Structures are given as structure tokens and as C-alpha cells.
Amino acid sequence: MKLSSSQESKIRQFLPKHQSSSALWWVLQRISGFFVFLLVFFHMIVNHYLTALMNTDAVPELQKGIASFEAVQWKMQNPLYFWISILFVIFLMIHALNGFRMVMLDVATGHTFRKILAILLLLIGVLVIIYAFILNSTVISFG
Q1: What would the pLDDT profile of 44-72 be if each residue is shown by its tens digit?
Q2: Is this model's pTM higher than 0.85 or not?
Q3: Secondary-structure percent of the chain, ordered helix, strand, coil, rounded to 5
Q4: Rounded CA gap, 1 and 28, in Å?
């Protein structure tokens, strides 16, 4: 079946302009989702199960409870925990903001709006990651 030129132009409106770019963001969404799942699992195990099983007599910081500032500060002293929490924020921002971007691109028309949206979401993501890094570093510095 042959389409008329007006039908072809209507169809082209909904196709991505750069196929490779769209495919990259699609793959990035899946990869970031996988890492968010792994890091949430890690977060739950470390913060809610392993800490509860620890001997609080050996670690006085944990005697006040799992969610106390001292307990969080004690955990953040470990560089592995610190960097995993930063990676968690990074992958979470990539996944959440890219998901929001994909939904908005489904309903948005206009190249200018798409460009502004991409810049705004990138700015939000970078600011949140910087804030997480500063917050985690500040928690460590109080120790």
C-alpha cells in the first residue's frame, strides 16, 4: 500500500529524528534500571538487615539505632559504602529523569521544547548528584 505525502509526513512526525540517539537512551534506561534494582537491594540489605545483626557493643555508634546520625556517619566512613551511595543516586537520576524525558517526548511536539526539556533535565540531574556528593561528604566531615 502506498502512502500519500501527507500521510508520510504525519508518520514522520512521530519517528525519532536520530535513530541511534533514541536507541542509546533506550539501552541506557534498561541498564540504569538494572543497576537501580541492584543498588536498592544492596541498600536494603546493608541498612536494614546487616546493621540490625551487628554487635552494637563492638560498634558504639550503632547503639542509638540504625537510623541515628552516628550510625549513618559510621557507615559513610567506609569508602565502599560512600561510593555505592553516590552510584545509587547517579543511576537513580539517570533512570528517573530519562524515564520522565521519554514520557514527555511521547507527548511533546516541537524541537525547541524537546531541547529545553533535555537541558533542564540534565541540569536537574547534575545538581542532584552534586548535592548528594556534598551531603555525603558533609556527613563524613562531622566525624
Answers
A1: 887 777 766 666 565 655 666 556 677 77
A2: no
A3: 80, 0, 20
A4: 36
Strands (E), the chain: none
Q: Which residues contact 71 (CB under 8 A, 6 or more apart)?
A: 51, 61, 62, 64, 65
Q: Which residue has the cell 542532584?
A: 128
Residue labelled with grid coordinates 547517579:
90
Say if CB 76 and CB 136 are below 8 A apart: yes
Please name the amino acid found at residue 15.
L
Please, what is the end-to-end C-alpha distance for the chain in angstroms? 72
Domains located in the chain, CATH noted = 19-141 (1.20.1300)
Instruction: Measure CA 2 to chain center.
Output: 44
Owner of C-alpha cell 552494637: 56
